[in-house]
Amino acid sequence: MALFKFEGDLESLSEPQLKLVESVLQKHGFKEGKVTVEPVGKKGDNYAANVKRFIHESDGDTFKMIGKSAPAAEILRKLMKTAVLFNNEIIMYQEVIPKLNNLQDVAGIPDSERIRFPVCYGVLNEEPNELILLEDLSESNFEMLNRFVPLSNEIVRLVLKDLAIFHSLSYALKEFQPETYKNFVGKIINMWALLEEDVETQMFFEATENNLKALMDSEKYKKIITGSLSQTKTHVKKIYNYEKNSKYSVIQQGDCWSNNIMFKLEKGKVIENVMIDYQLSKESNPAADLLYFIFNCTDHGTRVKHYHEWIDYYHEMLDFSLANHGLKSNRILPRDQLDADLRRYSRATFGFGLLHSSMVVRESKDALDFKALEGTKEEMTDIAMAQIKAQNLDGSTVMALKHRIMGLVDSCLELGLL
Description:
Number of helices: 15
């Protein structure tokens, strides 16, 4: 007889995944009870995972978890590189993040200067049943902000502080436990490197670039966009060659944007944030994390007004955080080196910003739902390329996308990043 009764949105959940949920509940002292499963988010909020909330109720007690499960369809998994994405995140939650937390403990870093990570209750790294069970941050009054609203200067600074702490912990690990760092890096796979060898991905990138160029009225914008996605392979190869044996590389968050960050508000003001998605984590330069976040989460006006002070603040926080481990930024990552790397990584990150913009600007009804694609790999690619076309969007969304792309181009030009 089953100890736990599951009900609700059980679609896409396998028997091994439900057994993991039961195992975690038992470890928390629960012996029986009802487990209600609810979907989390809507189309466009998450592209590579099915996200559900598990609510256990027994004897008046309630315990909640968030579960990220992998799609099971074989062809979709190959197209999305699902096994790689989940392997990366499982390695981060199971091995890397506990080590980073340990470094914070050993250094005696107070709560106000620590980075907070979601608690991971358990993982299943068994294809095609991958599942990650995490703390439900909404229980601690964290929430996701509206992805259509650019982040303010104050919120950007909060996230930059966390990125600086995250990078400083990686540098400390690299400095004092180089073999452990090397072991972690060997397990985390750079998704972008894999995608650049994929014919269907290249076709999708080229189609996206052509669609964005078609939106532009001015040759100025068309010229800047040209090659930013269709030549991604070339841009990324230059980065890889630079990164070989680079002493400035860290383990990155990799996908730091609004939907992958939870925020705690107090009287309408954001006071704390937690980064929640590590599927695109990889070893790379801190500049890539910084530009990805700034390009994808802010608008043109805020960027050009605050960009330089943001970089100043990040480097100050990096120096402050490194000092907790007896390290100094002028040896680990000098400011002039960071400035040079920001320029070096700007072209590739600009291209990813274009790709990102073409997807996240869409309302839920128009969002690309990769998990729902069916057919052969080629057929799914054709469907995705058809859906990406701006002609399929309503007028207001087209204008929002056009405004966002123009702002990204103008910011890069004004800041000397292109």
